[in-house]
Amino acid sequence: MITARIQGRIGRITLDRPEALNALTHAACLHIHTALRDWAEDDRVAMVVIDAAGDKAFCAGGDIAQMYATGVAGDFDYGRRFWRDEYRMNAALFNFPKPVATFLQGHTLGGGVGVGCHGSHRIIGETSKIALPECGIGLVPDVGSSLLLALAPGRLGEYLGLTGDRMDAGDALHCGFADYYIPQSAWPALIDALTETGDWSLIDAAALPAPASRLAKWQPEIDAVFGGERLGDIYRAMPASPGEGIQHALKLMARNSPLAMAATVELVHRSRTRPTIENALDQEYRFTARAMEHGDFLEGIRAAIIDKDRSPKWKHSDWEGVTGADLLRMTMPLGDAALSLEETGMKIGFIGLGNMGAPMAANLVAAGHTVTGFDTAAQPDGITMAQSAAEAATGADVVITMLPNGEILRAVAEQIHPAMSAGALHLDCSTVDVDSARAVAEKAQAAGLMAVDAPVSGGIGGATAGTLTFMAGGSAEAFGIAKPLFDIMGQKAVHCGASGAGQAAKICNNMILGVTMIATCEAFALADKLGLDRQAMYDVVSTSSGSSWSMNAYCPAPGIGPTSPADNGYKPGFAADLMLKDLRLSQTAAEAVDADTPMGAVATALYAQFVEEEDGADRDFSAMLPRFRDRHRS
Questions:
Q1: The domain boundary residue, chosen from 477, 499, 521
Q2: Of the candidates 331, 351, 338, the residue with the CA atom closest to the CA atom of residue 287
Q3: Residue stretches of the chain with pLDDT short of 50
Q4: Fewest Cβ atoms nearer than 10 Å: which of 73, 392, 478, 517?
Q5: Any bridge partners for residue 131, and if so which?
Q6: ∠ CA(287), CA(288), CA(294), 5° rounding?
Q7: CA 123, 265, 306 angle in degrees (round to 5)?
């Protein structure tokens, strides 16, 4: 979990999964990148501070369990999406136009280096341990770390990449992975001062001299051995009677994938020749994009975290078995599949492009996302349309549904879930019954997908303006992936709990809305018959104990308060028949859990009469006012 917020003069990002050593999820990468984009030109933010909860780790790497699950199922796209989005975040962090201070306590490993070591002010303390252990799971040091390795003094870059050795504070400062040593007891006060002032020079003033470095002591023998052009050159340079540093290196390298080590040497040398973050990430992605299908990555994960037998069966038994062709296969250009750091949009399928769905999808397109839509009737301009729901869902990172009822949602889910890539997100913005929302989420999980139910409030105007409120149910990780899309389509998103909680919040909210709109319309009709001026009525109630959203923001009286559908002949902003649908959902839910909702029941009956027996169909739900105005007490 990630929290990103503006505090005082800083933008502050906190990695907050201490129980998982703050391992980096796909959602976390997207969340960090979104925050960086938002703050780059925000004058309120003078600098960024990145810290982490707990004392054991800043970030112990990427959360690779989902990669394993999708990879063994033959789906390699999830891992590629994860790496692609992570690398874009790494580049954004490296190139951020304002100072970035990172506080790296405990373990900073693998993917954590991509968050913690690309800042401008990298702070370490007495517990800090930084390492790139990727070769131990059949991967290469990535997240832009091949550039950091290339810039390390002498041949320490090759040493660190091939061994995964852990740098303490002195080593990290010597090797260029950190900038400042500050005792960790001083960190809270320093962060408070940065928050108040935004003055990054306070970090310089707080720093102490660097501790001694073990690797600096070993560097002469490391430089003598690790200067070879290829992995084989390094092994052949090993002395018959190695010193302490080389003995340690041999022990660590014996655990690693020979193919990954050979590629690591190549990547470090390529980064040394062209030392830019863009080149480093491009070269790394060539390997990682192929790592599951052609490399040792899945076997490395199996041995390390699935079976935990610590006995991986690598594709090559030793370094001598790795050929030039093997290395070329993993590091040659990817052609059309190459990493693009400029393309920041998601690939989105959007099913249900009616009055609400079409403007929501248009806002996503305007934000740079690629949207493929499907609707049985509508064909909105500006959106690429598919021939079926399954076609719209194929290859999408996220599939959004905006459908009329739970029965249709269940039927569409049956079509799209088999077509979606494992690990993709089904984001349902329909308003349906809670049981349907939970059933669809269960089916998504069984298919290896994530799911969020997120009905909306705000009507057609909110969908067009991008000011909707989303009430979301689902896992924290799934909500995190959906959050950047909520930020485009709306002004607020609330994570209400597990699957179905979003629908529960929506029907409770709209039961209140239905009841209060009836009361507001009744009161205006009564005021008319009492001879009370409508403006006077509004001026009193909108600032008194009778105020409500129905009165203040959506006043049912034409010409009174902010512009509302009442000023447009009650042309629907939120149709009365949709209010009836939501009220009926509330009563179905109330019956299911034995809840007493007499006002909700009365409101349901009144809207049913208005829509089905009177002139309420195709009118706004606030058109209850002329209904009550024209009626008499019976």
A1: 499
A2: 331
A3: none
A4: 73
A5: 109
A6: 70
A7: 75
Count Cβ atoms below 10 Å from residue 263 Cβ, excluding itself: 31
Tally of domains in the chain = 3
Cβ atoms within 10 Å, residue 74: 9
Question: Residue 342 falls within a domain, yes or no?
Answer: no
On whether the pTM is more than 0.70, the answer is no
Examine the domain organization and report whether 527 and 458 are in the same domain: no
Identify the CATH number of the domain in which residue 526 sits.
1.10.1040.10
Q: Domain range for residue 458?
A: 347-499
The whole-angstrom separation of Cα 347 and Cα 399 is: 9
- The reply to whether 506 belongs to the active site is yes
Buried-exposed string 333-354: b where 16+ CB fall within 10 A, e elsewhere: eeeeeebebeebebbbbbbbbb
34 and 120 part of one domain: yes
Residue pair 482/459 in contact by the 8 Å Cβ criterion: no
Structure tokens at 67: 């990669």
Token pair, residue 260, equals 């990954």
- Which is the catalytic residue, given 98, 129, 483, 506? 506
User: Could you report the per-residue pLDDT of 135-183, keeping only the tens digit for each?
Assistant: 999 999 999 999 999 999 999 999 999 999 999 999 999 999 999 999 9
Nearest to residue 455, comparing CAs of 423, 420, 490?
490
**139 vs 160: CA distance, rounded Å:** 14
Cα–Cα separations (whole angstroms), residue 387 to 347, 353, 390, 572: 17, 14, 8, 30
Choose the final residue of a domain: 499, 516, 550: 499
Amino acid found at 53: A
Q: How many residues comprise the chain?
A: 634
Please check whether residues 577 and 439 belong to one and the same domain. Answer: no
